[in-house]
Design goal:
Number of strands: 21
Structural class: alpha/beta
Oligomer: single chain
Length: about 575
């Protein structure tokens, strides 16, 4: 059995590294301080107490720690039945763990020597969707079949089931160590709508949610529009999805907008921002456009356009030829007479980066903390959305903001943040570091100017990789965005080496989250263990079960069958459940 050291925080002890971290944060003019104390949303200052608490809420068990794989994909994975048409899901064999020696050679006997440094859960790309939002781009489906997903009305129920799964884990799968925290790595919302942000925060911290806007009595959107290009679950319409085998489900839409309850995570959670959280539709730098804001909260919704028009709009988005949404504005205006009437709702308004931070700081959404979920009043003062926090005595976490408010869905970071990242790592050179962001290194290619900092240079993923390579105690860069499990080794010319861990989304099949464990093998190597988990919903669905749990199960199965959905998002075995070995520095 592996030997593990308790990673629970002591709460009152002042650690030398914590003092160093706080001092380093203060030295940055206009920067954001460390969220060192999960109970305090303020940035640490030189005058404040620097008592640091490791991000931990679960006490180490009294009994010897043991591996715990129940409820993980090591034990079982949802598996499709049949090879064509609409496929049902059932229980499948678990995924084996793959040892990867790309960056260091694993040594025999390490399982009996290792000690745990930290363990956490990564959730990413939840895409909590207000499925009736007037600005949604569902009509792009007339040109691209996978531009709209038939299961999008069930994102709330699916995310709650993921929270329930995480809560049921008794410890980390390999070491059995307590889980320190959960981190969401962006695209927590889908349309940059206040309704979605409220639902996301209640899912994570607990509360009752009615996933419905507009008319409180009924659904008003594309799924009861009568349009055959969308699945009409309640209607007799022979739509394109039913022709592909999708079921007729009486009462589906009524059930989808019914009140549900989330228990909230039973451990602290932190939040990283993604492009769908920062930008309307995830791609438009259009917060200053009053026409688009009025449409978001108003009583008109465009549901159908020609394939040629949809193709043209989609090309503008993909090629980033309209990052400010000016052509999008004109496109909607030209289709004003084609829009259908819906019930207006102010809750659908877009939120600004400052409002995103303020919502996290709201005591109503604290849950088990930390206050602000990583963000602090210093972020509001500086207009930033990046921060650092102490995970354990030996490990710090750094959350980056890789979105570009100038528009487009790919990312980058500004010079001030790049310098802050470098200084934060230097000031904590005795600690191991885990970097969190939404974008991957390969998708940080958007170098548009930030409207809030027009004179600041933007930096791509290769520059971030080079910087991280100069800090030998960086262990991992954990991110999402690409909706696919990919684990990439990085051995940089500057001498450092670390693993980039990109995790699949929870909106597209196979709908996963990931547990990451950091261990010292006591032989000159460190191992990072990654273990994927599904939601708590049963693999098998029952079309007559429209309960909260039944809908969460349907959410998974419908995502499997979504027309045009990629079949490779689960990644290769070496991108799933792994042991990633590094040389110890």
């Amino acid at each position: 059995m592996s030997r593990t050291r308790s990673v629970a925080g002591s709460g009152q002890n002042i650690h030398r590294r914590s003092v160093l971290a706080a001092t380093g944060a203060v030295a940055l003019a206009g920067g954001v301080g460390y969220a060192l104390r999960p109970s305090d949303s303020q940035a640490a200052t030189a005058q404040e107490s620097t008592a640091a608490v490791a991000a931990s809420s679960r006490q180490a068990p009294a009994a010897p720690l043991a591996p715990y794989t129940k409820g993980t994909t090591v034990a079982s994975v949802a598996a499709p039945r049949g090879g064509s048409g609409y496929r049902r899901l059932g229980d499948g064999s678990g995924w084996q763990r793959v040892v990867r020696s790309d960056l260091a050679v694993p040594k025999p006997g390490r399982a009996g020597r290792r000690t745990a440094l930290a363990a956490f859960v990564q959730l990413t790309d939840l895409h909590i969707i207000d499925a009736q939002h007037p600005l949604r781009l569902e009509y792009l489906r007339s040109a691209d079949i996978h531009a709209w997903r038939p299961h999008e009305a069930l994102t709330v129920q699916g995310a709650i089931a993921l929270v329930e799964r995480i809560n049921a884990l008794r410890g980390a799968p390999v070491t059995g160590a307590p889980l320190h925290f959960a981190m969401t790595t962006g695209d927590n919302t889908d349309n940059n709508a206040k309704s979605e942000l409220d639902w996301f925060l209640k899912i994570m911290s607990g509360g009752r949610i009615t996933p419905n806007t507009g008319d409180p009595r009924r659904y008003e959107g594309v799924q009861n529009s009568g349009l055959k290009q969308y699945w009409q679950p309640d209607a007799a319409v022979r739509d394109s999805d039913k022709q592909a085998g999708f079921p007729h489900l009486d009462g589906f839409l009524k059930a989808a907008i019914r009140e549900v309850r989330s228990p909230g995570l039973n451990l602290p959670w932190y939040s990283t921002v993604g492009n769908h959280d920062s930008l309307p539709m995830g791609c438009y730098g259009s917060h200053g456009d009053p026409y688009l804001t009025e449409l978001a909260v108003g009583g008109k919704k465009l549901m159908n356009v020609s394939a040629a028009e949809a193709q043209q709009l989609q090309a503008q988005i993909k090629k980033a030829s309209d990052p400010k949404g000016i052509r999008y504005h004109d496109f909607l205006k030209s289709h004003a007479r084609s829009m259908r009437s819906v019930t207006p709702d102010e809750r659908r308004a877009p939120f600004t980066p400052a409002e995103y931070v303020e919502a996290h700081l709201d005591p109503a959404h604290r849950g088990l903390g930390p206050a602000g979920h990583g963000y602090s009043s210093a972020n509001l003062d500086a207009g930033t959305q990046y921060y650092a926090f102490r995970i354990s005595d030996d490990v710090i976490g750094i959350s980056l903001d890789t979105t570009d408010s100038g528009g487009h869905y790919e990312g980058s970071i500004g010079t001030a943040q790049l310098k802050w990242l470098d200084k934060t790592l230097r000031d904590n050179k005795d600690s191991y570091a885990v970097i969190f962001s939404h974008h991957t290194s390969k998708t940080m290619t958007n170098l548009r100017s930030d409207p809030a900092r027009p004179g600041e240079r933007r930096h791509d993923g290769q520059e971030v990789l080079a910087l991280l390579g100069g800090h030998p105690r960086v262990l991992a860069w954990v991110n999402g965005h690409i909706h696919k499990n990919v684990i990439t080794p990085h051995a940089l010319a500057s001498g450092g080496s670390f693993w980039e861990i990109s995790t699949a989304s929870h909106v597209d099949f196979p709908q996963l989250a990931r547990i990451v464990e950091l261990t010292d093998n006591k032989d000159g190597t460190i191992s990072l263990f990654t273990t994927l988990v599904e939601s708590s919903a049963p693999h098998r669905t029952d079309f007559s079960d429209l309960s909260q749990t039944g809908l969460a199960a349907l959410y998974r199965e419908l995502s499997l069958n979504a027309p045009g959905a990629s079949t490779t998002l689960g990644g290769d075995p070496a991108d799933r459940n792994t042991e990633l070995v590094l040389k110890k520095v």
